[in-house]
Amino acid sequence: MKGKVVLLGTSSAMPTPERNNSGIFLQYKGKGFLFDCGEGINRQIMKAGLNIYSLDYIFISHLHTDHTLGLTGVIETLDMHDKSRIKIFSPSGIGDFLKCFFDRFYTPEIKVDTKELKLEDRPFTVLDHLEFNIFAVRLNHLVECIGFSFVEKPKRRFIKEKIEELKLKTEDFKILREKGYIKKDGKIITEEEITEEVKGFKFTYIPDTYKTDNIIKLAKDSDILVIECTYLDEEEKAKKYGHLTLEYILEIAPELNCRKIVLTHFSKRYKNPEKFGERIKKADAGNIILGEDFMSFYF
Ligand SMILES: [Zn+2]
Ligand SMILES: [Zn+2]
């Protein structure tokens, strides 16, 4: 197991006794990534048994309070543990939001790097790491809002049949590693010929948005897509408040081609979103599930 994705909050504007405001924790090889930080996320991280001090990056989709109110608490917790720095990516405004708090109420020693992103309509790179990329795209909400993808870089794997066919031995692999090719019976065999590319894990988070093609551009072929689904089929409300309906998600699901689609950010008007489950069943969309707080996905 390389990592896991944990839902920390699945309610929209207001928390409910069952559902916290938005937050998703991604753990990958000891590194922690937090996507959105609504009220109560600090405690949700602890309740989920996650290591808050492993957090290196926080990605804020937009500045509505149901996605940001927990931020100062998380920073204070990190500060108390003498963590030296945290990097926050967000649309514009996060700097002012934090400065107001830091200037007047709490001055942390931790270095808080904020990067305000310039939004684009095609997926752009936010972070290019040796082992993964973070991509982002503009969404269609009432304020500037961003969707994020974590994509593990592809790796090459030996093709078992080819290795057996060529009867490769340990010393052959050593030469292959050093030179990138080996000589077998007078023939040159390159690494490319006997390896294949294996796609890395892809996680996408689509927070608050109304319909936009940018969702598909970013989320296509994800292993796990966590997507806002504030309404069941109230199209007028969805358009007015900049949200999605389950009907729209069902419509684009074939093109999204995701292994698993996890719905989140349910409106509090649905005390129990079982109607969503019934509609999904009717549509026979087996890869779509209703998110719940603390639901975890391992990869
Ligand atoms: Zn929201
Ligand atoms: Zn919002």
Automatic annotation (TrEMBL):
Active site: 66
The keyword Metal-binding is annotated on this UniProt entry: yes
CDD domains assigned to the protein according to its UniProt record, in alphabetical order: RNaseZ_ZiPD-like_MBL-fold
InterPro entries: Metallo-B-lactamas (IPR001279), RibonucZ/Hydroxyglut_hydro (IPR036866), RNase_Z/BN (IPR013471)
Cofactor: Zn(2+)
Domain of life: Bacteria
Metallo-beta-lactamase domain span: 199-266
Keywords: Endonuclease, Hydrolase, Metal-binding, Nuclease, tRNA processing, Zinc
Residues where Zn(2+) 1 binds: 62, 64, 141, 208
Catalytic activity: Endonucleolytic cleavage of RNA, removing extra 3' nucleotides from tRNA precursor, generating 3' termini of tRNAs. A 3'-hydroxy group is left at the tRNA terminus and a 5'-phosphoryl group is left at the trailer molecule
Role: Zinc phosphodiesterase, which displays some tRNA 3'-processing endonuclease activity. Probably involved in tRNA maturation, by removing a 3'-trailer from precursor tRNA.
Family affiliation: Belongs to the RNase Z family.
Subunit note: Homodimer.
Entries under HAMAP family matching the protein: RNase_Z_BN
Record protein name field: Ribonuclease Z
Lineage, highest ranks first: Bacteria, Pseudomonadati, Aquificota, Aquificia, Aquificales
Originating gene: rnz
